[in-house]
Design goal:
Order of helices and strands: HEHEEEEEEHEH
Shape: elongated
Mean pLDDT: 85
Number of helices: 4
Number of strands: 8
Structural class: alpha/beta
Distance between the termini: 59 Å
Length: about 270
Amino acid sequence: MSHLIVVGLVVAFVSLGFWQLRRLDEVQAQNARIAVRLAEPEIQLARLLPPDAADADIEAVVDRPVETQGRYRAEDQVLIRGRSLDGAPGSWVVVPLELADGRVVAVNRGWIRNDGRYIAVPDTYRVPSGEVTVNGLLQPSQERGSLGATDPPDGRLRSLARVDLDRLDQQVAGDVVPAWLQMTDLEPEAPDPSPRPLDPPEVGDEGPHLSYAGQWFTFAAIGAVGYPFILRRASRERAGDGAADGRPGPDDPDPDDRPEPGDPRLDATVEP
């Protein structure tokens, strides 16, 4: 039974090691994609996602630098809950921006400290009035995974668990662009105080996946090499214990093979 357990553990450790290597490949591919996107020249949002681009491949434009102009709808701004920054609790401030073509793009103006006291965007965080120019990176709508907070399906909400464009579209007049804008720099007309813009995604940090893979492979090697050694040592100890309590050891003669009276070996003489 112990053999099966050890073999199963070794196989599991090796599988986990290769899984970490696959995760490393994914991170490297993502870093390469982000680096290419961030290096692309800034483009007008209306050119990248025109009004007839309802079925556009949003993944193809994620992290693409864009610029757009419009007017903020301060009455429709929402908090995005549970967004810590540098270890401090906080929220994002997302404000719909009405474009010249009548569509609306959700703009994440940045992070504010929020230890739970705010259930809506505080009045102290105002948006610039009039037409503004916004620069940022396009991001896909966020979806709830297998775990996570949920938002009421109906009603007008002042805070959301995530930047869910479908849910935001329910309470914002006009067509919502199928990607939101993560602001990288405050507007020139930004009042004080204003939310803190988020930093662009880091490129080059591959995480601990290679280290974790090495650890899993090390555990597998310990099991594959160490277990037979333990078995051999245990076998020797059992043999030694048998000799100590009077039982024959592996090098002792067979007691059943001792000569009996009449055995020719008893008559053997040793020549001088």
